[in-house]
Every structure is written in structure tokens, then in C-alpha cells.
Design goal:
2,3-Dihydroxybiphenyl 1,2-Dioxygenase, domain 1, single chain, globular, 118 residues, Signal recognition particle alu RNA binding heterodimer, srp9/1, 4-stranded mixed sheet, 2 domains, alpha/beta
């Protein structure tokens, strides 16, 4: 059977109580750009003009306790140290057969993951 979906994701949807703070956190820590926003509803974040993430406003946030996707990086050591230097809650880098990964939390307490593949 031919897959119903493509190999690339169009974007990630996350939820935040404070969209201004969360948008700033993603821009300052991951280098995303604020593309469009209505801080009472959503914020759209981009990389080089390409949409990659929507943050949606919620009032009763339960943070994601386990990473459900992974951001790709070309330099995991630099990414790790940048997040540590910026005061993010960061967990140790783990090495697997074909990649390295680490988990970290955003300012809303959502668990995220970053990976570098060989």
C-alpha cells in the first residue's frame, strides 16, 4: 500500500498558556522567527520564512511529559551547550547507533528532543 502521507512534516503544533513568553523562548533558544501572531489565540513560528510551528493558546495546559517529536540539528554539542547557557532544563546527550539525542523542556514545561544523525 502506498503511504497516505509524505516523509516530511508540515509543522508542529504545541500549546502554551503564555504565547508571548513561549514565542520569545522559541525564538531566543532555537532561532525561530515569529511569523504571524494573535497572542490571544496563536503564534506561528518559522525558519527562513518557512512555517515550522504553531503555538496555540490554552488556559489549562498539561505539559507534554515525553518528547513526541525531535528537532534536527547539525551540531548537537553546540545546541546542547546553547540551551544550557540559556538556562533551559536540559538532559544528557544519549548516543545511539545512528544518532545522538537529548531532551529538554521549553518554558511551559513541555518535553522536547533534539537529534543529530550521522
Amino acid at each position: 500500500m502506498k503511504p497516505l502521507i509524505g516523509a516530511k512534516l508540515n509543522g508542529v503544533m504545541l500549546y502554551a498558556q503564555d504565547l508571548r513568553r513561549a514565542s520569545t523562548w522559541y525564538c531566543d533558544n532555537l532561532g525561530l522567527q515569529l511569523a504571524e501572531h494573535h497572542f490571544d489565540d496563536f503564534a506561528e513560528l518559522a525558519i527562513e520564512g518557512q512555517y515550522v510551528m504553531h503555538l496555540f493558546k490554552v488556559y489549562d495546559l498539561t505539559p507534554i511529559s515525553r518528547a513526541v517529536f525531535s528537532f534536527q540539528t547539525d551540531d548537537i554539542d553546540h545546541a546542547y551547550q546553547t540551551l544550557v547557557n540559556n538556562g533551559a532544563e536540559v538532559y544528557s546527550i544519549e548516543v545511539f547507533g545512528d544518532h545522538k539525542s537529548f531532551c529538554f523542556k521549553d518554558c511551559e514545561g513541555n518535553m522536547l528532543m533534539m537529534s543529530q544523525y550521522a
